[in-house]
User: Fold these one by one.
Assistant:
Number 1:
Amino acid sequence: MNDIRIDKQRLWDSLMEMGEIGGTEKGGCCRLALTDLDKQGRDLFVKWCEEAGCSITVDKMGNIFARRPGQDDSLPPVAVGSHLDTQPTGGKFDGVFGVLAGLEIFRTLNERGIETRTPLETVMWTNEEGSRFPPAMVSSGVFAGAFDLDYGLSRADLDGKTMGEELERIGYAGSAEVGGRPFKAFFEAHIEQGPILEDEGKQIGVVTDAQGQRWYEITLTGQESHAGPTPMPSRRDALLGAARIVDMVNRIGMDNQPNACATVGLMQVFPNSRNVIPGQVFFTVDFRHPDAEVLEAMDAALREGAVRIAEDIGLEMDFEQIWYSPPVPFDEDCVASVRKAAEALGLSHREMVSGAGHDACYIARVAPTSMIFVPCEKGISHNELERADADDLAAGCNVLLQAVLERAQA
Ligand code: GLV
Ligand code: MN
Ligand code: MN
């Protein structure tokens, strides 16, 4: 084991400086994909990478590749990275840690004058969250061939603005083709976003798998009418249908414990007036499970139950599964590199399955890939209260550095 270690304070300071862009009063961050704030975050990342001697490539999905040359620059790079976009009430660490950990590795190697045999790349993937432009991980998905470029660029927000238009507007519609860029290996460092590591007092999660996800969009249409004169038995209340489906979604999640997750996180009620019976409701469903068969059974239960509820209330229903991301087993050799690095550094660790989606899930289709988790306070994430400890972040970054060095020399 070498004695190269990253600079904990420098990593922390960079996270805090990035967190000021879109920083919220509660100490979180709101930097939605392809907004002016996202542009500012990207500009800062590019500036830091250029100062660290990297060349920058931006592809047509706005993915940014910061490259540190290798002794043999014709070899495929060992790549690391994550995302800089956040949820509307997000934190300073989700995604940002994985990107700035890559930069911190470059800074550390530069300081020591260390060259690697293969080049290294730190990648910032566009719109991982899928909050403004569903689905999640769309740009790493285009990179990995899960979606075509037109699909990626035409994803639209609730105002109808597309990713293509917004990439042009903020100046990050790059010219490089998306994909066809081989990586020797890809590692994503991330906060756990759940409570397991903290509860067990472990510092490093050796991530072996990621669970699958299905995302749905449902529109129920009834009839808006007056809240006073319309008798209860003759109403076609779209929100009542949505409420029953929300309850059913929760029940499907509870029926498939210990591992299922089932969430309705977005709802729009039309016309949203207190004395009008709601005529139309649009909402989303997010199902997750590590086993594809259980996820399929949850899908069947949702479809069957939603039809029944809509019929009972006399509603029309438009039901669409907009995204399926199957469970992902990560590459055994990459997982072993992470485990070996944690052991060599004397860090407490355990194997785990990722509950969240990550760009690594798509990159695993085109390169040997795995992930490194560090604890976050009380397991809270997608929340302005998201916190991580500087020592844990440094530990995760050191594991990343060792795993990268092992791969980049081999
Ligand atoms: C991405 O943050 C997800 O929803 O898993
Ligand atoms: Mn993330
Ligand atoms: Mn996230």
Note: The first strand starts at residue 55 and ends at 58.
Number 2:
Amino acid sequence: MDTLVTAIDVAIPLHLDSTYHYLVPPELLSEIAVGKRVLVPFGRRRLIGIILGQIESAEELKPVLQLLDPEPLLSPDELEFLRWASSYYLHPLGEVIRAALPAGLLTPPRSGDDNSSTPDHRLAIQREPFFRVNSASEAHPRMGARALAIFSAIAATVELSRTELRRQFDEPGPQLKRLVELGLITREEREVYRDPFREEAVGRDEELLLNEHQAAAYCALTEAVHANSFAPFLLHGVTGSGKTEVYLQSITAAMEQGKNALVLVPEIALTPQLVKRFRRRFSCGIAVLHSGLSDGERYDEWRRIRRGEVSIVIGARSAIFAPLSHLGIIVVDEEHEPTYKQSEGFRYNARDLALVRGKRAGAVVILGSATPLLTTVHGAQEGKLLRLELPERVRGLPLPTITVSDLRGRRGKVIAPTLLAALRRNLDAGGQSLLFLNRRGFATYLICGDCGHVIRCPNCSVTLTYHRRADRIVCHYCDYSLATPKFCPACKVGSITLLGQGTERVEEELREQFPEARIARMDRDTTTGKGGHAKVLKGVEDGTTDILVGTQMIAKGHHFPGVTLVGVIAIDSILNFPDFRSSERAFQLLTQVVGRAGRGDNPGRVVVQSLMPEHYAIARALAHDSAGFYREELLFRQEAGYPPFAHLAALHFSGNVEESVKQGAMGAALLLNVLRSSRPGRVEILGPVAAPLSKVRGRYRWQILLKCRRRDMLHATLKAFHDGWRSPSGIRTAMDVDPVEMM
Ligand code: ADP
Ligand code: ZN
């Protein structure tokens, strides 16, 4: 009979579906626990994995090389959540775990590194000496003036760090050493956090007296907080209706119950105002997880959360995995934003996972938006979420008045006379203006006037965009760029005409028209680098910018009281996207942009330029008629069988050889057909077709869309495909459950 040995089941952070077993050496037996990291041999490599469980095994197993943590990094409950996500999104558990942990924790040591050094060298915990005065010591006659000053400074407080002493005394080293030798002070090394927030002190603010609608929403939310069980809400409030104040006060209520709060925002760089409001309101620990953090800083924030030193976590998408315990409330602000969906690798949706996590934790979940997803509105109609409404702006501010400038039959400048006149008037009255356009750059098409050749990216199936300041033509997908050619690269003689418009061109037109105005631009070109967004936003906040031109970035929930005019230069192109959500996107974007106007004491005005002003998405947004839009759009979705009336999954195939990608996709479709016929229910298979963006970064792309009214049936088919499909060599297959991006 085989003897059984103690082994562990380990998740490896690679694209592998199975987990692996390792022998536990006797000296580690007492220390192994679920959620700790281990260094293990894997083929010829050594990798770091996470312990999933203990097993008895009769197999011949390789032993664990090293146990890396004194305490587990993940609790059994957190692991359970990640397992759920792994099976729902059909993505390997090891990679899911890696996405949930701070970057670098699962990065193995480079070979050649000494075995005993900790593998997470990049994430070394920082230590710093602290000095305090010994209880009985007093100033000493032989100290000298400088040492005395240092001694007194330390004596005046409980203790001082070396950083602080260096700031006050510039090279206090020799004196500190001497004071320690004399036994007057003690030195102690302690762990410190790299503090990513050395910003100006923020001050405090008080709770606002809620208006009637806010109070009703707050009552429902606090009641749910007190009930200690899962309760999902849609907080549907028009722009400027005071949603944030409702979040803040509901979180206070949860904290009074000893519970913690998780706040998800679409993109931290774009929401400095929201973070500031939280810092002003709460004196408890707040962790802010944003993309500007170094790996070390992120690891520090993660440890603060893990140790229970913070009560509130604010972060973008990946903060849904923050190790916050006693979760009482989860806020998903601007829940309609597509950025909640991770569109590469582990393709999860943080908005959806917020509901899953909230359910597991028995927490209140608030999905807040002025333009909620159709799915959310439908969920509320079906009674799956409770809808709370803030139908009016705070302090009785009116919604802005809107003028449509019909562009049909017009050619010429990007800014038509109606908008130009409105800008002039607003500028003279001292108001600020925002201009929205969903394309950056100067011109989006370069076409030869002689032969009609259009300049395209060699790696991607898109046209190149002309950027005047850099005098280059750039691909917005792969960043390929070229100096602007003088003559057509195809016929070599034709001169090039610039067509299509971008933010850079609008900025230039504005400078010609309003030379005295202070004009700024906000798009990916002007906001690179740390604090890039904050700088542009601050100009508007301080009133030092008269006109801000920008892309989607300017539409994201900013609160600018001085903005009294919003101009929409172009929105129609969004409606032409080959995506069933294009109307929903256009409606959301337009409503959000329009909502930036008139949030201060002066009423707002909006001018919208459009080629199809009677399209229902545009007309309803301009009439502030969201109920009408949702009604109409839900009918369309129901007839066409799209979400929320059906569930979707996409299969993406890509590779360097177009024909083999196509063949691969066809093979997958054949397999899907077989799988479908062997099970009940109707899973529709759409495709395979070349993706709308048929080539990106040199890789050809094909896709298949699966559609089914029942989620369980769709999942069963997908799972069977996942288990049975082997990608042909040279072809990458990716699965996207509940896809958001259909390009
Ligand atoms: P939303 O998130 O719905 O767009 P905000 O929460 O940003 O709106 O609120 C807009 C402005 O109104 C903020 O300046 C906020 O301080 C203010 N505000 C919110 N609630 C109240 C209230 N009850 N009384 C007065 N001002 C309020
Ligand atoms: Zn490209």
Note: The chain has a mean pLDDT of 88.
Number 3:
Amino acid sequence: MFKKILIANRGEIAVRIIRACNEMGIQTVAVYSEVDKDALHTQMADEAICIGPAKSKNSYLNMQNILSATVLTGAEAIHPGYGFLSENSKFAQMCEECDIKYIGPDSNNIDNMGNKLKAREMMINAGVPVVPGSDGEIVDETNALQEAEKIGYPVMIKASAGGGGRGIRVVSKEEDLVSAYNTAKTEAETAFGDGTMYMEKFIEEPRHIEFQILADEHGNVIHLGERDCSIQRRNQKVIEEAPGVVMTDELRKQMGEVAVKAARSINYKNAGTIEFLLDKYGKYYFMEMNTRIQVEHPITEMITGVDLVKAQIRIASGQVLPYKQEDIKIQGHAIECRINAENPNKNFMPCPGEIKTLHIPGGYGVRVDSAAYQGYKIPPTYDSMIGKLIVLGRDRDEAICKMRRALGEFIIEGVDTNIDFQFKIVNNKNYIKGDFDTSFISKEFQNL
Ligand code: ADP
Ligand code: ADP
Ligand code: MG
């Protein structure tokens, strides 16, 4: 097992990883930007090294500085968390070359799955059903019009390098296609430095169902069931739950086997997520694979009892998965609300600033993963997510009641948050009935 791990991230996920290391008796090294000098992850790690100014480009994305910090502190492995360098194949490759263990899949896997066009192609070859769409890249406006005609409206234009819901546009009629294609392409070029676009059939009123995978370095691959992440705003997840409301044991078995097959076909290693769309007729399609730990991983931990971050570290150290598929049992129902410093009444505008008062909910079945503390100043530089509230109930009804109760206890003063908005969602009658799809928020909260 590793003696020391460097965490190339910040915020709640850095804290989450430090906690896992701590329990495993592994020393931790935090890296931080100048503005994160007093951040919780900087304070909690055994050692902390400043890697540059606030801007991510100069700090959390600065591969040279992060690798130097690793060598300097004698850390043997790097955990990339999510976001930042977690899906950067060049970084994984540089780690490989420097003989530093990257806690995640190898650079090849990241490269192939990070390119969504390539991922589609590989999944088609592996016999995994994908969303009907363009064969390859959409090269120009004329090509876009031709492909849309072939696929049939409505269509979705997507960035091959996309992530975080950006570089995506839905087009319902021909007149709107060219301008949507151009704006999505420009957005992708700005956000990802890569304007490669493709097109998919827009699946109407689908659920986002994703499967958690664990694969060791000895050829063992299992899944840990699904998460329903259909409660989204602008293609970004807001609430996730596990298991999925509409899932049956049979569908879980089927989709789980497809997810395992997908991971196996690319010789995948470590933790990963296969995202599917499940349409209203019960047909499912591969959408993308995320080659990293996911924001919503705790809900899977709550219902399976498997600590996914520890599993990642154990896998990276070469250990064999200690469980087989049949050992994974799902118990109870878990829900996660992402808590963001933002104002839902001002178009969800981020609201950085000082947390003047903080009261964190607790009690049986309540978990808060956060890097916030009273007096902490949320910098304007990074993501507005300041924590995650996770509950585990015996069943979905109990989980919803617990979430309402816990949201009610949560007090954050000094910055605007989406806590009240989350409260409205978990009190919505269609949400309570489990009657929702990815269009839920835009339909139910039109005035926002
Ligand atoms: P998850 O399924 O884990 O919620 P998200 O797509 O929401 O994944 O991404 C998790 C984090 O990573 C978010 O902070 C998001 O902004 C960031 N992220 C994801 N993909 C990219 C990308 N290609 N470039 C930059 N940031 C990304
Ligand atoms: P990202 O990398 O940004 O997470 P995804 O490909 O996972 O991109 O898509 C993000 C979200 O957009 C999905 O969770 C889903 O709600 C929606 N979406 C993506 N593709 C389609 C599609 N073909 N039809 C309908 N909705 C889609
Ligand atoms: Mg996705």
Note: The first strand starts at residue 4 and ends at 7.
Number 4:
Amino acid sequence: MKRYVADISRKSVVLGVTGGIAAYKAAQLTRDLQRHGIDVQVVMTRAAQGMITPATFQALSGKPVYSDMWDTGVPDSMAHIELSRGKNAVVVAPATADFIAKLANGLADDLLSTLCLARECPLIVAPAMNRQMWDHPATRRNVDRLLRDGASILGPASGDQACGEVGMGRMLEPGDIAEAVAGFLAPKILKGVRVLITAGPTFEPIDTVRGITNRSSGKMGYAIARAALDAGADVTLITGPVSLAAPAGVALMRVTTAAEMFEAVKRNAARAGIYIGVAAVADYRVDKPSRHKIKKTDHDRLKLALVPNPDILAWVAGRPRPPFCVGFAAESRNLDAYADEKRRRKKVPLMVANLAQEAIGADDNEVTLLDDRGTHKLPRAPKEVVARQLIAHIAKLYASRGRKPR
Ligand code: PMT
């Protein structure tokens, strides 16, 4: 089979850390941005170094950390110009009231503020301060000015503050900032396309309390929903029982059994431009689940009669005008061969193969994409990164088929 490479461009940002208590959370933010496949160059203010050491960021980002305007390690000693060139955004997190005031007034008295003024890329600011400082008319004016100058403001959130007070001013959680930045940077390659996704396991009742299910966590399907949303799609997510929070902005439908999932898919398939079946749907259900809890004392041996569930993916792909269909194949061996056989049998243009025992429940995944043109292996990566790469690949195939958004 021919091998080909999906075009997946890596994003990179300057992470500016200023001197708020929340500076320690910027270490986690560095990790979370990397988890989304974003390269991080850290620049710190002097005050931030009183909160957390540059060595921490250097170890996490794998790059020297800059804070000095005249650092000789930067070509031409022009750190304020060089560091932001070629970057996709400057993210300031945490941004103190003082730093926001500087930004709003165009002050440039240290490396980070000068770099923000000299940048060509978008500016994203995550404020963090005491609630009174946030509410102060001066801060309100400065934030308003920044917004009018085109900056994006993430947060702040309300809650317990380091000073012991409670109110608005906490920095958003690093994971939320990283998701917002990743979404901001994602190319809108599925703008206006309706994407229907199934995720998680199904649960097939045996009686009123017991059932047959599997260990799917929903992480892969939810990550794909997020990536599709960030690509500008209109996303409907039909999910089996999982404990994940759904990405804000998706139309969420919760189901329990395969039959319920099938009904929900049937109601939405005609409007979808793309269907992605990530759910681990039970192949069988109990023929006649008991309407009461089965008593152990009533049975020496208990036999369950199982009947097959409908194949949801095959049904969608077999419609007269099907959406662009993507299936997932979870196999424990002969991955490519079994997945390709499944792709042909279910008549789907793209099948994503993964090793069941390694993919299910895990945070990372390693997948192979199989379509008419051949196979392409994506390297093992966090599911968020795999999801973005997959969406990039799907968008390309979708566009190459001359599909109009629907
Ligand atoms: O949820 P996670 O913990 O993140 O794990 C992710 C995952 C391993 C569940 C996911 O990556 C995955 O592989 N999902 C598909 C699992 C599966 O059911 O594979 P399958 O080979 O049995 O099914 C093939 C395809 O047919 C799938 O797209 C499935 O959604 C679909 N199918 C299967 C049976 C059925 N009755 N109806 C279906 O639509």
Note: The first strand starts at residue 11 and ends at 17.
